[in-house]
Recover the amino acids of this structure.
């Protein structure tokens, strides 16, 4: 059995990735969250809620994909998808609130949920992420939507591998900063954003067949 010929990481691959507009939007939108934390004083819980809301944004664009391919089938399956993905988001949100909410507030679930959904910094931080995923939808999915006509199940489950790649990495990095920050966790915020952005870029490339290392893409022709 012959082993696959993995391409080495060199500057051509990085240059190819940095040329992608969607990657640039990912970098800018994630670092705008860092700017909010460093300039406007957002705490780590706010940042984590922003990234939790990004998961909901990914689900929103997944629903748009389903509608754009087969509207009748999407309408029938939408309640099941919303229930399944909603349960996933609920577990993710409870984990975020459990780990990152201030200790006196952890038992007050209703105020915490109100703070998650009616929080101006969270909505402001999520806005560029919403735009970033919209750009990816327009550039990566819309021109090729005909290729997905018989793959509704693939589209419906597409968000899970992507979120499950950067979500654990993000939570572990943020928890380390939160509990090991020595009272000054803001010094670790750039590390959290950098880790999340790198995981986000990797999952984005894999989800859209753009990864030059795993998909054998001809970067000279890109």
């Amino acid at each position: 059995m012959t082993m696959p010929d993995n391409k080495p990481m060199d500057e051509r691959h990085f240059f190819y990735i940095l040329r992608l507009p969607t990657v640039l939007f990912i970098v800018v939108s994630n670092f705008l969250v860092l700017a909010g934390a460093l300039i406007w004083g957002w705490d780590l819980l706010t940042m984590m809620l922003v990234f939790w809301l990004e998961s909901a944004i990914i689900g929103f664009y997944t629903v748009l994909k389903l509608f754009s391919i087969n509207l009748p089938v999407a309408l029938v399956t939408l309640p099941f998808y919303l229930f399944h993905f909603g349960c996933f988001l609920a577990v993710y949100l409870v984990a975020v609130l459990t780990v990152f909410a201030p200790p006196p507030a952890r038992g007050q679930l209703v105020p915490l949920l109100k703070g998650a959904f009616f929080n101006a910094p969270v909505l402001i931080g999520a806005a560029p992420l919403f735009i970033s995923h919209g750009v990816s939808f327009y550039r990566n999915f819309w021109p090729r939507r005909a290729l997905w006509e018989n793959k509704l199940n693939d589209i419906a489950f597409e968000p899970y591998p992507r979120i499950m790649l950067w979500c654990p990495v993000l939570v572990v990095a943020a928890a380390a900063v939160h509990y090991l920050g020595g009272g000054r966790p803001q010094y670790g915020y750039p590390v959290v954003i950098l880790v999340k952005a790198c995981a986000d870029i990797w999952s984005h490339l894999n989800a859209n067949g753009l990864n030059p290392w795993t998909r054998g893409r001809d970067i000279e022709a890109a």
